[in-house]
Amino acid sequence: MLCNHNVATVARRDSIEAAAIKMRDSHVGDLIVTEMRGGRVVPVGIVTDRDLVVEVLAESVAVDAVTVEDIMTTDLLSVNEDNGLEFTVRKMCDKGVRRVPVVDDEGTLIGVLSLDDVIEHVATLTSCIAKGVQLELRTEAEKRP
């Protein structure tokens, strides 16, 4: 599965400030909220930069009055690493999410896929196809002038 294996994570009880700093330092707009279950790191939620703005800053909530758990999304869509890209993108669109944790068969977090990743992948494929078509046209023109 196409995904970023370098996932920025945070714990439920981490402070909002710690989450914001981690987003900034990791250059990401989201953190996957994880917990340990049976020695495995399992995704249990997601917190985004938008959550910080809408739930904390725009409501003038003191950052030390809430934790990640208070603002994270818990109705989390996750996909298995064996799910195809088309299946995953359809699920993301159906649910209206831009990012999805990718897990193995045991539910262990192995990566995260964003629609930005998909767009970049499709752009790369489209570029390769266009180059292939152009090469084929040049080859044809050279063989049959």
3D structure, described in words:
The chain is of the alpha/beta class. It has a single domain (about 10-115), classed as Roll (CBS-domain), CATH 3.10.580. It has five helices and six strands. It has helices at about 15-25, 50-55, 70, 85-95, 115-145, and strands spanning about 10, 30-35, 40-50, 80, 100-105, 110-115. The strands form two sheets. It has a three-stranded mixed β-sheet with strand order 1-2-3. Strands 4-5-6 form a three-stranded mixed β-sheet. Strand 4, helix 4 (about 85-95) and strand 5 form a beta-alpha-beta unit. The longest helix is centred in the C-terminal third of the chain and has 29 residues, at about 115-145. The termini are far apart.
Order of helices and strands: EHEEHHEHEEH
N-to-C span = 44 Å
What is the CATH first-level class name? Alpha Beta
Number of strands: 6
What is the 3D shape?
A: elongated
Any idea what the radius of gyration is? 20 Å
